[in-house]
Structure formats: C-alpha cells, structure tokens
Amino acid sequence: MGQTCSTPALKILMIGTEMAGKTSILYRIKLDKEIQTIPTVGFNQEEIMIRGGKYFVTDLSVPNYFQQMLEENKGVIFVIDSSQEDMHESLELFTNMMHILDEKSHPILIFCSKCDVKQPDLEHIEKYFELKTIKQQYKIVKCSSVTGEGIAEGFQFLSEQIHM
C-alpha cells in the first residue's frame, strides 16, 4: 500500500450516513491498520496509495457540501453500514446524492462496510437502492476496515472506470 507513484492523484468523494464507516475505511488504507475514529465534523481529506494508484479522498460528513465538491472529483464512494437492519437513512441519502449526480458520469463504488460484523446481502442492497436504474457505472463491494477486506478491490474498480 505504501508505493510511490508519479501520476496525479484521482480525486474521490466519499459519502455515507453517520457511523457508516467512512473514516475507518479511509484510515485503514492510509495507515494499513484499524484505528478507533470519532465522528467526522465537516470532512477529512487524505492522499492515499493503494495497488500502485494514488487517490485524494474527501471523507464528507456533511451532505450539504456534496454538490459543491462533486465538480472537482472523478468518482464517488457511497458507504453503507451493512450491519444495520434499517437502511432507510442510507437510501434517503443515496437518493439525494443521485439527484445531484443526475447526468454526470462519475463511477460509483458502494462499500457495504462492517462485513466482519454481518455479511451483507448484495442482491438485496442492489434492489433496495434500485441500482439497476442508475445511469452511472457502479459496483457493490463488501468491505471491512478491521480486516481490510474488499477495499483494494473497490478502488481498483474506480481506477478502471475513471481511466476508461
């Protein structure tokens, strides 16, 4: 994870509900270990390296800034806490995000976090969030900030989609 790269960092915007695991995922990549985090106020920004790719990730806790920050970013990560039974709040945030994305071609990575706590039903999530109706390229990946599972796979998808 700590390789050098001379290409410019891809700017990625990460959004999700409070306590979904956004910051934990970001620092799992940055530090290559699990850390205890506190709820983000505003946003965190980090440049990270993963599988030889360089990314500048903005972990956004305030959805109101999403539209302003979207223009300068190439992709979106939407984080869902898959250990929760009720995903209504995530669905509402996702729906609002999709209205803002509208016709934009930003690829969307959907991280189903906390898969070490509860394995997500990816088919259910795809149906619940009506993902087959969106215009953007997307991928659902189960991930864990504790084990690191799925994180590199998700960033690989973003990199491939952005460089197409």
From TrEMBL:
Species, as recorded: Hexamita inflata
InterPro entries assigned to the protein according to its UniProt record, in alphabetical order: P-loop_NTPase, Small_GTPase_ARF, Small_GTPase_ARF/SAR
Keywords for this protein: GTP-binding, Magnesium, Metal-binding, Nucleotide-binding
Superkingdom as given in the UniProt entry: Eukaryota
A Pfam family the protein falls into: Arf
Annotated GTP binding sites: 16-23
Binding site for Mg(2+): 23, 40
GO molecular-function term, one example from the UniProt record: GTPase activity
Name of this chain's protein: ADP-ribosylation factor
